[in-house]
Structure formats: C-alpha cells, structure tokens
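re: the backbone from monday

yeah here it is again, tokenized this time
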C-alpha cells in the first residue's frame, strides 16, 4: 500500500512546552472533523495564504481524497509533543492504519504547515538490521524484483514498516516470471513453490484462507494476504506475505527450525502476480512496526558467493548448495 505524503512549508516561531495549545487543539479537531465529513474544501479554508499558494485547492482536495481511499476514516487524533519550534506532532489512527501528522499553526490560528507520514512508535527499539543468522526463505534460484535502499530499486523504502522489504519472483532465461500467456497463477514459476524458515523462531501470527487473486487483479482488503510472522529469540520479527490459499503448514505457537517448511508461494492480498514479500520489522504489529534491513549469511548472487549480504533489485539469488 502506498501512502502519498504532503509536505508544506513549516514556519517555526517560538518553542512551546509539551502541552497542546488551544489554537492547535482547535485546528486538529477541525481537520479531523472536516476530513471525516469529506469537506476537503473547508480544510483548504483553514490554510494561511502562503499555504494556499503552496497547495492549491485542487491538489489539497486530491490528496485528502486519496488519503480517504487508502486509510479510511480518522478515528482518533492524539497530541504527542512539539518538535522543531511550533510544529505539533499528532498520532492519527485511521480505520486502515496509523499516521503521524505534523501540524503548524500561525498566531491567528491558520494552518501554515502540514506533513503526514507513517507513525513511528518511539517506545519500541529500532532494529537497523538482523543479528540472527539467515538463509534465504526459499529453495532454488529467485530474482529480486524490489530490493535495495533507493526508490528506484525498492518502492518499499517510503513506508516505515517495510523500508527494508523484498519482493521476490522466479524468472526464466528471458527474464519472464511466467510461461504461456500469464493468465493463470499456475503459469507463474513462483506459484506453489516452497517457502522455508530463514532462521529458528516462534510463529507468532498466521493468517490463511484468503483467496489467491487472478493475475493482474488486487485485493486491498487485507494487503498482505495469507501471512506468517516468525519471532526470534532476539526479538526480531520476520514477515512473510502472499502465501497460496490454505497452504500454510505452521500454526501460531509453533517453534520452527531454520529450513522448515512454512507454506507455498501464492498471489493473495494486494498482489498482482505470485511472489514472496519478505521483510524484517521490530515488533509484531505491521501497522505500528518499523522495518529493518535483512542480511543473509552466505548466499550465491548472480553466480558469486556473498557473505553477510542484502540483495538488490535485479539480482538472482539462491542459498549455497549443501
């Protein structure tokens, strides 16, 4: 799921204490109320003149329309603290997730700065990378479709919980991920392939029973589709998405060893073709997590041995042969 960000000029003035000022309380309440009522033109009227120039009505309305479609109604907007002078940070809980809202209000109560981005819960430790030794979570050679640190390599970098994620497929010598016309899931080389545990750990979440999509179609109702999360002894959480319907071989509470079968690759959730989505995160809850970068102990990358390596887009990767 992609969430567009809105960033307008923020105008810090004086440094406030850590209690919400009345002008901010009023502005945040109005934004939430008008957003939930789809009165986006009235949100625009809350802006300062500079804000209106920076974000004209059409763009402002387009943003909030898109946000409503992706995130749903804003159920709660809680003040957290002030940062960077007069910028107030709010934790906004939407029906489909949580965002941070950075809000700036001038001396006459006009909104002169607004930023929305994924919310990071600072009460949880951030995991920059894994410390648990990993193998690749599959057998045979796969191709990294999305992976790396730049937007060109990996669209996931814009999303806090998924910033180190991989999308993985299987391709042939021509670089295609399917045979025939690709009209059915069975045409795709990845569909039905075994997915395995990259490390020892406890199964803390299993979601199964979600239908596989027809190639080219998406199911945004539950974005990850059929899902497994493994928790390690070092409190690292490895997230697997898009399993084939009814193929998951583990259940919540199981303890798996590295190499154990988890299930089969599928095309469930917000997925346009059969593939594996895999990433590391710091807590179990996908909506509140912060992603980290996964490094694999010893793997083959485009035919060469790599140690302690995190693959990038376009590379063909596989575990070393026993």
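seq for it, each position gets an aa:
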């Amino acid at each position: 799921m992609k969430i567009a960000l809105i960033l307008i000029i923020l105008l810090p003035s004086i440094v406030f204490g850590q209690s919400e000022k009345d002008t901010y309380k009023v502005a945040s309440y109005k934004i939430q109320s008008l957003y939930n009522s789809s009165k986006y033109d009235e949100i625009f009227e809350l802006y300062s003149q500079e804000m209106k120039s920076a974000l004209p009505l059409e763009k402002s309305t387009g943003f909030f329309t898109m946000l409503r479609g992706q995130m749903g109604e804003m159920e709660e907007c809680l003040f957290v603290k002030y940062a960077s002078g007069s910028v107030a940070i709010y934790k906004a809980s939407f029906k489909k997730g949580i965002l941070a809202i950075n809000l700036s209000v001038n001396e006459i109560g006009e909104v002169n700065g607004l930023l929305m981005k994924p919310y990071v819960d600072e009460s949880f430790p951030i995991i920059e990378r894994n410390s648990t030794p990993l193998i690749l979570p599959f057998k045979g050679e796969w191709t990294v479709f999305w992976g790396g640190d730049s937007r060109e390599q990996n669209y996931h970098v814009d999303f806090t919980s998924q910033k180190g994620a991989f999308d993985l497929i299987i391709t042939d010598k021509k670089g295609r991920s399917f045979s025939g016309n690709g009209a059915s899931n069975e045409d795709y080389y990845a569909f039905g392939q075994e997915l395995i545990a990259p490390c020892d750990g406890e199964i803390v979440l299993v979601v199964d029973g979600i239908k596989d999509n027809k190639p080219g179609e998406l199911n945004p109702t539950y974005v990850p589709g059929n899902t497994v999360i493994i928790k390690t002894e070092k409190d690292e959480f490895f997230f697997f998405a898009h399993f084939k319907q009814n193929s998951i071989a583990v259940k919540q509470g199981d303890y798996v060893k590295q190499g154990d079968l988890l299930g089969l690759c599928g095309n469930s959730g917000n997925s346009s073709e059969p593939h594996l989505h895999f990433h590391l995160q710091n807590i179990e809850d996908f909506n509140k997590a912060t992603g980290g970068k996964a490094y694999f102990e010893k793997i083959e990358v485009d035919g060469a041995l790599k140690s302690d390596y995190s693959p990038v887009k376009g590379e063909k990767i596989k575990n070393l042969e026993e």
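DSSP finds four helices and 18 strands in the chain. The first helix runs from residue 22 to 36.
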